[in-house]
Amino acid sequence: MTNQRILSHFHESAELKIQSATVLAPHIAQAIEMMFSALSNGNKILVCGNGGSAADAQHFAAELVGRFERERFPLPAIALTTDTSILTAVANDYSYREIFSKQVQAFGQAGDILLAFSTSGNSGNVMAAIEAALEREMRVVALTGKGGGAIGKMLTDADVHICVPHDRTARIQEVHLVTIHCICDGIDVALFGGDVNE
Fold it and tell me: Which residues bind substrate (predicted)?
């Protein structure tokens, strides 16, 4: 029974990734182009999400500031999930809904990108961050699932919505992980061309 459950996780994940590839590839390509353009113009990427999505936000920022698969200069990305003094002060003095939006207001500038993770598309603090980003003339790349929720309705034509076609949080997060690796790879190729293995 245990082995069968394990196998079903692997099979469902693999099948969803194959199914999502065709659907999401054009949107991922748009996100790469938008981020590369912003980084080339001296702008930065702010990243947010809750729980496992907070880990994805930090993972993405680490890949840009450190490296993905090849040596390069550091790229400016800030995970808004990491400063516990800011997070707890804002949550305590204002509300949990504002923990990311206050940071977007503090650090975001026109031309920057907000990369927003919400598997449900309905995370209140992520929605508030998107509102703050749009007010500051930033562009948004939203990674969601479950139909995109309220976040899908907030985005403008200038933004990018990468919505995983599934309702299970674990599977959505697994596709989000492949997506951020695709974006990191795409940025590196846009910067340097070719393939790391060439």
Answer: 50-52, 63, 92-93, 118-120, 123, 173
Q: How far apart are CA 10 and CA 16, in angstroms?
A: 10
Residues flagged as binding site for Zn(2+)? 59, 63, 173, 181
The structure tokens listed for 76 are 């400016």
Task: Note the pLDDT tens digit of each residue in 49-82.
Answer: 999 999 999 999 999 999 999 999 999 999 999 9
DSSP tag of 146: G
CATH number, domain 1-197: 3.40.50.10490
Give me the DSSP letters along 67-106: -SSS------EEETT--HHHHHHHHHHT-GGGTTHHHHHH
Instruction: Return the bridge partners of 113, or none.
Output: 45, 139
Annotated binding site for substrate, which residues?
Answer: 50-52, 63, 92-93, 118-120, 123, 173
Binding-site residues, in ranges, read 50-52, 59, 63, 92-93, 118-120, 123, 173, 181
Global pTM reads 0.95
- Listed by start position, the domains of the chain span 1-197
Beta bridge partners of 78: 46
Helices (H), the chain: 2-40, 52-65, 84-93, 101-107, 124-135, 149-154, 169-192
CA distance 112 to 75: 13
Q: Letter for the amino acid at 53?
A: S
